[in-house]
Amino acid sequence: MLDHQTGLFSLVRDFQPDEFRNNVLALAATAKYFGLPTILATSMDQGPNGVLLPQLREILPDAPVIKRPGEINAWDNPEFLTTLKATGKKQIIVAGIVTDVCVAMPTLSALAEGYEVFVVVDASGTFSNVARDSAHIRMANAGAQLINWFAVACELQRDWRNGLEGLAALFEKHIPDYGNLISGLKR
Hints:
Layout (H helix, E strand, L loop, with lengths): L16 H17 L6 E4 L10 H6 L5 E4 L9 H9 L4 E4 L4 H14 L3 E5 L8 H14 L2 E3 L1 H9 L6 H11 L3 H5 L5
Helix pairs in contact: 1-6, 1-7, 4-5
């Protein structure tokens, strides 16, 4: 999760603020629920980019936080790259602010090194729909899989019988209308 910082949230114009924040927190909750190794990264968090969204630390208190002092591409930060490679994973789920830079650049770098990359489009935001769409095309053309947080959760779950109540609670919290569907389980 790249650069979900309080100051950078103000740059996101391709989503409504409450919708975007919910999607970011839903992705973090999905990572926690499924026990995914998660890395939180910031870029120049002492300046106007701001600190990491505090709720992310609440949801993922054990996740390493990589504070990049200046690298725009997280892939260029040795600590980030070492931490990522230490997970041993060859599939990476990426989200961040801004889509066309902070998400696209490390995505393209990871793809070039043979990783399979899933970009969570609804937990990644940028200045405009045009910037978002061009970044999505660029990443998809390079081989990235574009996906939303709900689809990530469903792909990881694979079968409703694998802990229905936990996944249902996650969905109910982050998709209020899903509560109507879940209410049948609470009888």
